Amino acid sequence: MPETPVLDRDRWTTALDELTDTYGGQLVSIELLDPAIGHQYEAERLPFSYLTYDAKDDVVIVAVGGQSSRYPVVLRHMVQHPKEIDVSTVDVPEPAVRVLDQEDTATLITFYPATSGTESTGPAESTEPTES
Asked: Are 60 and 83 in contact (CB under 8 A)?
C-alpha cells in the first residue's frame, strides 16, 4: 500500500462509515498480514456489506455477504483494540484500508468493482431436477 497518513482515532467511525457509503455494492478481499505466521486470506472478492469502528468495544468490524440469495449469510472479521487505521483511495488501482492491531498484525481490506468479473463463485449450484 502506498504511503498514507494514519487516521486520527477520533475520525475512525466517520471515515469507515463514509467508506461503507462509497463502496457499498462492490467486492472486497480481507487479508491478514501477520509477522509471525505470514499472509492469509479471510475472504476473496465477496460482496461488501459494511466497515465500522465500535468505540465502546474498541473493535473494527468488516462484513461481507448478507445482501443476496447467493451470499445470504453475513461474515464478519473483527480487529480487537486496533492501534492504527489508514486509508488509500487516491491514485491507487484498488482502494484499500489497513487496520493494525496491538500485535502488529495488519488486516488489509481491498475494494474491487462489482463488475470486475472476478467475484468468488462459491459452490456450484445443480440444475438437475430432484426426485421427491
From this structure: no
Q: Tell me: the pLDDT tens digits for 6-43?
A: 999 999 999 999 999 999 989 999 999 998 889 999 99
Nearest Cα residue to 50 out of 13, 84, 83, 87: 13
Give 56-113 as a 3 state SS string: CCCEEEEEEECCCCCCCCEEEEEEECCCEEEEECCCCCCCEEEEECCCCCEEEEEEEC
Sheet with 74-80: strands ordered across: 74-80, 59-65, 38-54, 27-34, 106-112, 96-100, 84-88
Alpha-carbon gap, residue 100 to 103, rounded angstroms = 8
Pairwise CA distance, residues 94 & 6, whole Å: 18
**Which residues make beta-bridge pairs with 107?**
32, 99
For the chain, counts of helices (H) and of strands (E): 1, 7
Instruction: Supply the pTM of this predicted model.
Output: 0.81
